[in-house]
Amino acid sequence: MYYSSGNYEAFARPEKPEGIEHKSAYLIGSGLASLSAACFLVRDAQMPGSHVHVLERDSRPGGALDGDQITNVGYVMRGGREMDNHFECMWDLFRSIPSIETDGVSVLDEYYWLNKSDPNYSLCRATQNRGEDAQTGNKFGLSDKGSMEIMKLFMTPDEQLANVKMTELFDEEVFNTNFWMYWRTMFAFKDDQSALEMKRYMQRYIHHIGGLPDFTALRFTKYNQYESMVLPMVKYLEEHGVQFHYGIKVMNVLFDIHDGKKLAKTIVLEREGQAEHIDLTENDLVFYTNGSNVENSTYGSQTKATGMDGEIHEGGSFDLWRKIAAQDPAFGRPDKFCTDPEDSNWVSATVNTLDERILPYIRNICKRDPLSGKVVTGGIVTVKDSSWLLSWTINRQPQYRDQPKGQVLVWLYGMFSDRPGDFVKQPMRDCTGMEICEEWLYHLGVPEDQIEELAKNSANTVPVMMPFASAYFQPRESGDRPSVVPSGSVNFAFIGNFAETPRDTVFTTEYSIRTAMEAVYTLLDVDRGVPEVWGSVYDIRDLLNATVALRDGKKITDMELGLKKRIALKEALKKIEGTEVEKLLEEHEVI
Amino acid sequence: MSQITKRALEASLKNMLLQKPLDKITINDIAKDCGINRMTFYYHFKDIYDLVEWSCAEDAAKALAGNKTYDTWQQGFLQIFEAVKDNKPFIMNVHHSVSREQVERYLYEVTYGLLLNVVNEEAADDPVSEEDKSFIAHFYKYAFVGLMLDWIRGDMKEDPKEIVNRLSLLMQGNFSRALKAYCTGEPKQIR
């Protein structure tokens, strides 16, 4: 496996790897990583589809990418994904997956056209005082000191960031700014989480810093991701004969490890309570999604609270990872991620408006018609002064193909599920759907005497507690996450957001797809480049733009500097006078 | 817990084929022979025919291992004969059943691979299009496999060496003659 960039590799098709007819693949889990691995196996490794087996515990595919409709409970999406134009592996894949909506076009075409004709941007990024625009003015509001703290993180080598929390590097000069409000709510980062991952994010999305405050950087699928991403992939795979096995609980994978070689030899599983096993040879490859951020999701309803289950249970994804990790130090350290649910949890809820009565309050904030079928909030709206730290969003409606006309699906989440609300005086995790809706309506500015009635009769709200939602961001060091293909592995790869690949950022759809692509290309020896993580961090233009954007457009020549530094800057500017460097700095409004 | 891999299932299939025809063999028979439950079969193969196909491909690969050059195409072809003969009960049975096509397809595939290699080596210095090379390999593929199918139908009585010797005489110089006919210009001196 090697990385590449540019059109030469992008448009090339790899030759069929030798001996592929003699190989089979077992994918543990059917989330985005597994489905992508299956697609790359079929498309690029050209493995016969019938040799690809997907083993899934649930009765349907998709993992965390959901878009559920529970009988007698209602519509519920645990999360929503925002995509970037430089999700290189994602677009490499989706150009080949046929749309299930329109004949003859790909999922990429469909997505590209949609986001071209209806581009995303926000008209109100945050509110305060019950429905007032927080007037962030698209500014970051960082002081020189705050900017320097961020710069310092940007420049610190990874080794020095082992297990470091952001609270060890940043103070209120960062935490009390719009910058941090945008950042932590958009990515669901908590202050005490991994500085290492924060740095990766800064570097990975340096080209989007300017588009961060108003979300011009983002793009969205047409429907929920189950319908827009999972279903087309599953259809593509089924048409290629890929075998889906549901109701399969994988309990362990047994390895034969000696002389530096690691061979997965048996998959131990349970089906309908019966123990079974799949024995493997070196020609049977295993792609394993280790861990899950929707582990132990508990669903509430309009009248039922979610509660929280932070225990690790036998047969769950973290339990399996523990059993595998116990067999070799190269298989990672799951406990770094799954032992602090109080920190990693959040609660999300899907509010289904049933009539027109809530809509004016929404319109008042996002300044758009929620029923237009086009961009509505254009990304999340954060309630700055909410004790749960609520953020909510309305994507293009309908979000489900069968959603009734005139109804709107709102997705919201709170980062602090253990704090009492501002209207509903109890922790989010103890609230029914209706109570969560009340808290949200309160922050929309609905008069207090109407709140209960609207939450009861004009909406149906389904909450979900995810104890490990942001477990990806727990402080970590090298070795906590296993490499995609650990050294010496003959037939086994880790994929998904708890596997390690250099430079890319977790809690993204791209990360699932990238690790899948790297795993398939490595184990099957597919001779074509995997697109490298977009190299904006090495592009001087992007660096200059980001520097200026972080300072809300202020030039470095306007920086408050001591006498010595001022003289030094003057000297430096004199040196570049009349050169390309000066021109470049001027073009990017650095000076 | 003994290991039950695809190879074990293949062995069971071949074992069952000594007892009854393919279309009478059920997944249960194979599972019982292997000592596994029926569902485990599906973790390896979609159905019996998927297993048959896999077995054919495995045997073919074994037969061809390392014999892909012009000097030894005769040997490669002979080894296909021998592999087929070694698996006589399997091949005869499969060939007499509904999956006759599978055997033929696998023979075509293997033979085509062998012949294309020969053609490519012979054509190393000549400007002949890939399409034409592939056409030549396909043409001879039918002749070669035809001989083999006849031999199978005749219960594999004839000595494969005889067949290959005769074929070898007939084919002498044929590939290069065919390639010349399709040549699109002067043979390349420098590659």
Write up what this structure looks like:
The complex is a heterodimer of chains A (591) and B (191). Chain A is α/β, with parallel strands linked by helices and 591 residues long. Chain A is 30% helix and 16% strand. The longest helix of chain A has 15 residues, at 225-239. Chain A is globular. The model of chain A has no long low-confidence stretch (mean pLDDT 95). Chain B is mainly α and 191 residues long. Chain B has 2 domains: 6-42, Orthogonal Bundle (Arc Repressor Mutant, subunit A); 48-181, Tetracycline Repressor, domain 2 (Orthogonal Bundle), CATH 1.10.357.10. Chain B has 10 helices and no strands. Chain B has helices at 6-17, 27-34, 38-42, 48-64, 73-86, 88-95, 100-122, 130-153, 160-171, 174-181. The longest helix of chain B is centred in the C-terminal third of the chain and has 24 residues, at 130-153. The mean pLDDT of chain B is 82.
Sum up the structure in keywords:
heterodimer; A: 591 residues; alpha/beta; globular; B: 191 residues; mainly alpha; Arc Repressor Mutant, subunit A; 69% helix
Can you say what the CATH homologous superfamily of the largest domain in chain B is? Tetracycline Repressor, domain 2
List segments of chain B where confidence is low: pLDDT < 50 over at least 5 consecutive residues. Answer: none
What is the average per-residue confidence, as pLDDT of chain B, rounded to a whole number? 82
Distance between the termini of chain B: 57 Å
Q: Any idea what the CATH architecture of one domain in chain A is? A: 3-Layer(bba) Sandwich
Major sheet characteristics of chain B: none
